[in-house]
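Annotators were shown the component list below and the corresponding predicted structure, then asked to write short factual statements about the assembly.
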Amino acid sequence: MNKKILAAVAASAMLASLSLTVHADSDVTIGVAMPTQDLQRWNQDGENMKAQLEEKGYTVDLQYAGNDVQTQVSQIENMIANGDKLLVIASIEGDSLGTVLAQAKEAGIPVIAYDRLIMNTDAVSYYATFDNYLVGKTQGQYIVDALDLDNQDGPFNLEMVTGDPGDNNVNFFFGGAMDVLQPYIDEGKLVVPSGQMTKDEVATQGWDTATAQSRFENILSSFYADGTNLDAVLASNDSTALGVVNALAANYTGEYPIITGQDCDIANVPHIVDGTQAMSVFKDTRTLAAQVVEMVDAIMTGGEAPVNDTETYDNGTGVIPSYLCEPVAVTVDNYKEILIDSGYYTEDQIQ
Ligand code: BGC
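Structure shown to annotators:
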C-alpha cells in the first residue's frame, strides 16, 4: 500500500472512532475477515470496523486473506477455535464458506455478511451492504444521461467490464446497469462492437486491474483499431475502470469515452478530476462500518439488529435481513464536497 492510501485509511479510521461513545464489553472478541489489502477500500473497511468496535469496548481480530479463498477459510476456522463471539465476513467467493460457517453455527456464533452476501449457507444472520442494485442503476443512468439517449439516435458504441463472477454483488451491479441500458441496446441506440455482453463475457477475475486492462487492450485492437469511436464504457468499479483507462492511454486515439466506476479510490480520483474517468459511485466505508457495529452491538446485547430490507437478498437458503446504505454518484462537479469536505480524503491525498 502506498503512503497516501495508508494516510487515508488512518485518517478515516480516526475520524470514525472520534464520533462514537465508549461502552465496555471488554472480553468479547469479534472476528473481522476481509478479502484483501490490495484494494484500498478493504483497508478502509477493516480499519474503520476495528476502530469503531474497539471504541465500543470489543476486542477485534482483524484478518485479511490476500484474495485467497483457502486462507480466508483458515482464518475463519481460527476465529471459531479462538472463541470469537461473532464473525463479520466480507467473503472472497460467496459460495466457498458453507463448510466453515456450518462450524460457526454449530458453535452458536452469529455471522454478519459484510458488503458481499455469503451464499448457500443458513449460518448468516444478517447482511450489511450498500444498495448494490442502485450502484449499477446509477452507473447505467449516468451513461444514458451523458449520451442523452432519450433525445439522440446514436448509435453509440458501448463496452462493458464487470467484476469477479464469484462475487454476488456483481449480479446486482451488472444487473442494475443492464436493466437501464438494455432497452437502448434493444432500440439500437447503443451497440456493443465486441459483442461481449453476458456477465461471464465481461467478468474480471478477482476484480484485477491488469486483467481488465488486457481484456480491454484486446477489445481495442480487435474492434476499434480501424478508427471506430468508443463512446462509453460501463466499468463496475474503480479497479476495473483503471484497467480501461490504462488500455485507452496506450491504444486509442479516438474521441475519449465516458467511463463509470465505483468506490472513489485514491488512484481514480485524479482521473475523475482530469476527465479520463467520468464518474464513480462513492460508498462511504465509515457509514457501513458504523452500521455493522450497531448490528454487532445489538446482537451481543441480545437484541434485534436494525435492518431496512427484508426482500432483496436471498442467499439460496432464504432472504437474509439486510441493511442497505446509500451510494452516491461522484463527478468532477461534486467530488470536493463529498470526498474532501466530508473528511474522507485530504486534498493532498488525491493529487
Ligand atoms: C465491492 C466493491 C469493490 C469490489 C472489488 C465488491 O464486492 O462491493 O466496492 O470495488 O468488490 O473489491
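Statements collected:
1. The chain has a mean pLDDT of 93.
2. The chain has two domains: 3-131+284-325, 132-282.
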